[in-house]
Each structure stands twice: as structure tokens, then as C-alpha cells.
Design brief:
Helices cover 9% and strands 39% of the residues. The protein is mostly beta strands. It has one domain. It is elongated. The protein starts with 21 loop residues before the first strand and ends with a strand.
């Protein structure tokens, strides 16, 4: 995907435990060859455990000396 505003619409399923406290997101570039870490983000799982869900934009601070920061929309539900 060659865009500054990619849309992934991915559904991922994870097993998490009450002792887990944070989920981390790493965003990499799409170069053929080496993948460079562009941005990272995290969500405190306490909010998910307390409410049973999470639906918000997660800010991603810039890496690699980039001045642009981004955000990703994250939705989580406990089942």
C-alpha cells in the first residue's frame, strides 16, 4: 500500500491474561528488504479489562527523526 493514510481493517485475536498490563503496536514501513520501525503506540489493558472494550485513536509518536506523527484507530473487545 503506497499511501500516507493506509487502511488495514485487520482483525487479530489474542489471548491475554489479567496480569498483562499493556499492548504495544509497532508500525513498519513497506520497503522491500529491510523493514524500518516508523512508529510505536500502546494501550493500557486496565481500561479494556474494566470496560470490557476499547475504541479510540492511539497516538503514535514519530521515530526515525520524522516530524510527522500518526495515530491508529484501535477497537478491542473481551470475549
Amino acid at each position: 500500500m503506497n499511501t500516507h493514510e493506509p487502511v488495514w481493517n485487520e482483525r487479530l485475536v489474542f489471548n491475554i491474561h489479567p496480569e498483562d498490563d499493556t499492548i504495544h503496536f509497532d508500525v513498519y514501513d513497506a520497503d522491500v528488504g529491510d523493514k524500518d520501525l516508523i512508529e510505536t503506540g500502546k494501550v493500557k489493558l486496565k481500561n479494556v479489562f474494566d470496560d470490557g472494550k476499547f475504541d479510540d485513536w492511539v497516538k503514535l509518536p514519530a521515530h526515525l527523526d520524522l516530524s510527522v506523527r500518526g495515530e491508529i484507530h484501535v477497537t478491542m473487545n473481551l470475549q
